[in-house]
Amino acid sequence: MAHFRLSVIFTSTLLSLTPLISGACTPIDSNKTYDYIVIGSGAGGIPVADRLSEAGHSVLLLEKGPLSSGRWNGTMKPEWLEGTNLTRFDVPGLFNQIWADPVGVSCEDLDVMAGCVLGGGIAVNSALWWKPHPRDWDLNFPAGWKSSDMQKHIETVFKRIPGTDHPSRDGKLYLQQGYDTLSKGLEAAGFKYVLPNESPDQKNHTYGRATFFLENAERHGPLATYLVTAAQRKNFNLAVNTMARRLVRTGGSVTGVELQCRNGEGFNGTVNVTPKTGRVILSAGTMGSAKVLFRSGIGPKDALNVVKNSTIDGATMISEDQWIDLPVGYNLNDHVGTDIQIAHPDIVFYDFYEAWDEPIQADVDEYLKNRSGILAQVAPNLGPMFWQTIEGSDGIVRHIQWQARVEGRTNTSMTITQYVGTGTQSRGRMTILPTLNTRVSQAPYLRNAGDKEAVIQGIEYIRGVLSNIGNLTWIVPTVNQTTAEFVNLVRRIPSLPSPLIFHYFAPACTSQLPRSYTRTHDSR
User: Locate the Glucose-methanol-choline oxidoreductase N-terminal domain: which residues (predicted)?
Assistant: First the structure.
């Protein structure tokens, strides 16, 4: 992995240096303007900033968290990575560490799990990487964004980030007993083996290996591609540990962004866009983008009144006659996930959590010397993935994706998560608290009878498939528990690990605002 240098803001000047913000809170240069200010350095913000700077625009990319990957001089790592240019975010075998040690990595102001570091979710997630089913585009996106329109763009992205299902450099896969056990049962039930990214439209009664945006057995993706090319341009700038407090605006015209330092570092003050032509792009995730809008006086009146009455923002909030009443936070969408769990004597568990501070030395050596071995695989040993489509009694076809992983209550357990994706109808709402933390006030889980029907029908079918595997035992649901009883009993909580219904949010609550307000929120 190479280190990269880029332009970052530093005490009122632009310098070319390694991407480290000063160790103290620093006033932003209020005289410097940017054509585009991009709030959030995740899967959306990084490519957008890259493409805009490529087009010749001056760009400031804001990240409220610290540096992550060693590629960008991140420093969070276990002792056995000291002396290397790798961090916890780079080594696949450490990707699950966020669940054991989220401090300084996850967002403190959200009630769901999300990454608040350079890269956002793409720095902390499992690096799963697949092409969408064409119906995802055709059902959910407007004219000009249908599958036929998007194919060339998908191919462009996958040329830069091809992904792999064999991340270890020796070409081997390790501890595949769990994958083998389940795949044999799936094949016996008539499931067809596919290479998922070569057949994105074959997602019914099929299975395959998980694909990851890894390269050289390290995290790859936008941090290693789009951010790299952006950083080579003088018109691109990055500020980390710098939170966008709110948009500075008059009516629907945004003139800048008010900044706040975080962790005693970063920048404060107001940074401005180029007069008349400058734009601000919110790409801070479903919760983060909505929070910025709320604090900027954009959203439902009940949420804006919470901000107005808060001790943090109340005295300085934009006046009520400038509020823009829009349904920010409504229409919250998610891929509801439900965990089931089995056990089989052939399954072999590897303790990736223990690898943080008490690793097996031979595994460490194999990874550091050769980028091979079990630590080159994504924790907690994912796969297989398999798919179903279910047509409900309401006539709506819902797509289901299953993701298995080797972890659970015993050392021979596997947890298998069912995700209901395209076709789901349930919606919820997120809002803001007096502390200005966000919360999900109405979870978008199984609020629609057809969604619940699909979850039950999908689990019931897979229980039948897997029960035909010799020596397999059920942990969750129990053998004496009906699927309907199980689904009715499990908790419905956003982004928490346990036998429950959960997952991560899709950006519906800020992406479908009326076109008449696109000066404030541009659908492009």
Answer: 112-336
